[in-house]
């Protein structure tokens, strides 16, 4: 069994910063890509940023230059530093990871989500 546990969401004023954390636990053999997605009310879930096990990153255009994704491979953790937050960043943020259990095929797992609210 694998769990992704997120933390760090909250309420912040526009221009402020938040740092999200997500740690994977359980019978993990390996972790490949890790990333963050978000879903605003009435909208589809969208990619925010991803990072490979080797540190290659991809960002949505809307967050480039403001958000930074990083990971700690030893702790199976991924982080999202969010600076210069805007009201349009308000959403539930979900952690995602491709994880292999007991040398089986990698599959995607989701965290429970953490609310980020940016007030104007």
Which regions contain 5 or more consecutive residues with pLDDT less than 50?
none
Tell me the radius of gyration.
14 Å
Helix content: under 10%
Q: Helix count, per DSSP? A: 0
Largest sheet: 7 strands, mixed
Based on the structure, what is the oligomeric state of the protein chains?
single chain
How large a portion of the residues is in β-strands, by DSSP E?
over 45%
Structure classification: mainly beta
Question: What number is the mean pLDDT?
Answer: 96
Distance between the termini: 41 Å
Basic shape: elongated
Element order: H for helix, E for strand: EEEEEEEEEEE
Got a strand count? 11
Describe this structure in words.
This protein has 120 residues and is mainly beta. The protein has strands at residues 2-7, 10-13, 18-26, 30-39, 46-51, 57-59, 67-72, 77-82, 91-100, 107-110, 114-119. The strands form two sheets. Strands 2, 4, 5, 6, 9, 10 and 11 form a seven-stranded mixed β-sheet that branches. It has a four-stranded antiparallel β-sheet with strand order 1-3-8-7, with no helix packed on it. A hairpin with a 6-residue loop joins strand 9 and strand 10 (107-110). The protein is elongated, with a radius of gyration of 14 Å. The chain starts with a strand and ends with a strand.
């Amino acid at each position: 069994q694998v769990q992704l546990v997120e933390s760090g969401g909250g309420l912040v004023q526009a221009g402020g910063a938040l740092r999200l954390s997500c740690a994977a636990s359980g019978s993990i053999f390996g972790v490949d890509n890790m990333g963050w997605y978000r879903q605003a009310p009435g909208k589809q879930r969208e990619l925010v940023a991803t990072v490979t096990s080797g540190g290659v990153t991809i960002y949505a255009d809307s967050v480039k230059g403001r958000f930074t994704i990083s990971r700690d491979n030893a702790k199976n953790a991924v982080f999202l530093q969010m600076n210069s937050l805007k009201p349009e960043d308000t959403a539930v943020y979900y952690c995602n990871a491709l994880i292999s259990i007991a040398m089986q095929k990698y599959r995607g797992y989701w965290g429970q989500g953490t609310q980020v609210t940016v007030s104007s």
